[in-house]
Amino acid sequence: MHGDVTVARSDHRKEPNMKCLIKLTLATALAVGTAYGALAQEFTKATVKKVDVKAKKVTLIHEELKSLEMPAMTMVFRVQDDAILEKLKEGANVEFAAERVNGKLTVTEVK
């Protein structure tokens, strides 16, 4: 009779594969989130024509707003954040992000 042979099975290979899968999933989620963030905050070049602090509005001569499917033009935007309003000076060249907030075109970020 042949001697007893014990075959040891190791699950060591499963654990590294699982760790790799988790890392890959997290990396993919981060990349997708970063890409979405980049698209969500598209900046457009503009020149500040007028600032109305009391009404919390700014008139901008802006390039095409691709995210809002709007051609280049001069128009008035709302500004909800006072810190953004303080950054806007007549005649200044800026880059801004805008979106519809409660149906109104609103400057959401300036750099």
Question: Can you describe this structure?
Answer:
The chain has a five-stranded mixed β-barrel with strand order 1-2-3-5-4. It has 111 residues and is of the alpha+beta class. A hairpin with a 2-residue loop joins β4 and β5. 30% of the residues lie in helices and 34% in strands. Residues 34-39 have low confidence and may be disordered. The protein has helices at residues 14-40, 82-87; strands at residues 44-52, 57-62, 73-79, 93-101, 104-110. It contains two helices and five strands; from the N terminus they run αβββαββ. It starts with 13 loop residues before the first helix and ends with a strand.
Strand content: 25-35%
Give the overall silhouette: elongated
How far is the first residue's CA from the last residue's CA?
Answer: 83 Å
Q: Based on DSSP secondary structure assignment, what is the total number of beta strands?
A: 5
Integer average pLDDT: 82
The strand order across the widest sheet is: 1-2-3-5-4
Largest sheet: 5 strands, mixed, barrel
Helix vs. strand class: alpha+beta
The helix/strand order is HEEEHEE
Radius of gyration: 27 Å
The portion of residues assigned to helices is: 25-40%
Low-confidence stretches: 34-39
Q: Compute the number of helices.
A: 2
